[in-house]
Write a structure and sequence with these properties.
Largest sheet: none
Organism: Dasyornis broadbenti
Strand content: under 5%
Distance between the termini: 83 Å
Helix content: 55-70%
Radius of gyration: 30 Å
Order of helices and strands: HHHHHHHHHH
Protein name: IQCK protein
Number of strands: 0
Shape: elongated
InterPro entries: IQ_motif_EF-hand-BS, IQCK
Length: 190
């Protein structure tokens, strides 16, 4: 088989990357790629690698990759420098939920998938940075409030008040008094 026969031609690419069909949720128009080769499916344990790919892997994986590309486009994954969209997470969830063995079961979110739970117990993820969780409006409000607070703290009257409070704490041993108070409260509780 010549190499060119396995390469997607322009018309194939258009079908692969076409927009989602109207009112079908996450089903994509992939008639060429979804079709399982005609004929009796081969035994998965004895067939050639090519047959295994054509009959068992590609009919599920290619629509999943197309769904991944549509989701990445919707999330503007390729346009933004940083985003919360994780392609491998999307594909894992999609493939798990589209598994033919699970066709009568309800949708399962990524972090509820059993093998994902097990993996995350041993390999916890770092928290998502706040900069990715906030919208531009929320981030601008945080920055503006910090700046207003900074400008107020720079005011000479506020500086004088803060110096007075510090001196008062040191003279009256406020920290020591508070510590003693809580020690007494804990002793009462026992």
């Amino acid at each position: 088989v010549p190499l060119e026969a396995g390469i997607l031609q322009p018309s194939d690419k258009e079908e692969l990357f076409s927009a989602p069909a109207a009112n079908t949720g996450d089903q994509y128009h992939l008639s060429t790629l979804e079709a399982v080769p005609s004929g009796e499916p081969p035994d998965p344990k004895t067939c050639s690698p090519r047959q295994f790919l054509e009959y068992y892997i590609f009919p599920v994986l290619l629509p999943g990759l197309a769904a991944l590309l549509h989701e990445a486009e919707k999330e503007e994954y390729l346009k933004a420098k940083r985003t919360t969209f994780i392609p491998s997470d999307f594909l894992t969830e999609w493939l798990y939920n589209k598994n033919p063995k699970r066709k009568d079961e309800s949708f399962t979110e990524l972090f509820s998938i059993p093998f994902v739970k097990d993996w995350l117990k041993d390999h916890p993820r770092p928290p998502v940075p706040l900069s990715l969780l906030l919208s531009e409006e929320e981030a601008s409000l945080l920055i503006q409030s910090f700046w207003r607070g900074y400008r107020v703290r720079c005011d000479s009257e506020i500086q004088e008040l803060r110096r007075w409070q510090k001196k008062l704490r040191e003279e009256r041993h406020i920290t020591k008094i508070v510590k003693e108070f809580w020690t007494k409260q804990e002793a009462k509780g026992n």
